[in-house]
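Final report, section 2: Outcomes. Of the targets proposed, Transposase is the one most frequently requested by collaborating groups, and we therefore present its record in full.
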Amino acid sequence: MAQIVKRAYKYRFHPTPEQASELARTFGCVRLVYNKALEERTRAYTLEGRRVSYVETSARLTKWKRSGDLDFLSEVSSVPLQQALRHLQAAFANFFAKRAKYPTFKSRKKSRASAEYTRSAFRWRDGRLTLAKMDQPLDIVWSRPLPDGAQPSTVTVSKDAAGRWFVSLLVEETIRPLDPIEQSVGVDAGITSLLTLSTGEKIVNPKHERADRRRLARAQRNLARKAKGSSNRAKARVKVARAHARITDRRRDFLHKLTTRLVRENQVIAVEDLTVRNLVKNHSLARAISDASWRELRTMLEYKAAWYGRTVAAVDRWFPSSKLCSACGALRGTMPLGVRTWQCACGALHDRDVNAAKNILAAGLAER
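The predicted structure is given below as tokens.
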């Protein structure tokens, strides 16, 4: 059965100098409003034990605009400022529900520069997007088409540390599930091989971070030599950010293609329920685990499976997938990481990772 989902389409765009200036002012005002509201809510919560509502912070915003010191807030669109307050409200709701840590202040250097516009603050006409306070539409690079008849409900504009501008359009899209199939697969996550499938296929880890490590290290050394606060240091920082962005973009593109393939080819995808946060505490493996991006891969699998009528079955992380013989079910006592092949007493010779993937598939299907 088809379902309607909200899906974000992200594109690069090239602003005019006037648009870039307007957006830079908006980013600064959004950050200021968020931080001032967080400061007041923290004061009320710490000193009075009182929770401040969104309505109260919205009223404060009106007062700030009328004050002499902050009257410049009226020069930018009011919608991104209100959205910043809504995001802060959501952050506090998650904190009080114990789903997240206490909200933190936004930094000019470390936080993502972004602004969110709802329908009242932009015009969408004939595939051209014009934001509030702007006379010209954005020059968007349409790398892929929007769904036919799509009408954006929310537009988020951002600028990354590498100086690239992006616009994300949130639209409602009708997604039809794929036809059911009988094929299922077990997936064992690794480092040498990014994934090993129960079919015996091993998907090589591209190791994007390692491939670009020399370029990144050179950029970081160059940055370290620049005087703090100088314009040359700012330029060097952008080069470092571009190196990081290249690694991130290539990794994400690979993961998207891989997860789409797995979802299209299998009805059930069984995976280990790994706790990446704990695994990266192993300093010997932290870099390799982070480069593999297991958490991002799992997230992609789950939302794509939900879209297309597939199932992701998570197997308990304590399940002894590597030590269990997939042929007879016998459990081996110990299995050091250095052991890549082993033979069971029943005579079955196992590749460690393929055997683990087969056991993960069996356990995932048993839990359905």
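Confidence is low (pLDDT under 50) at residues 276-286.
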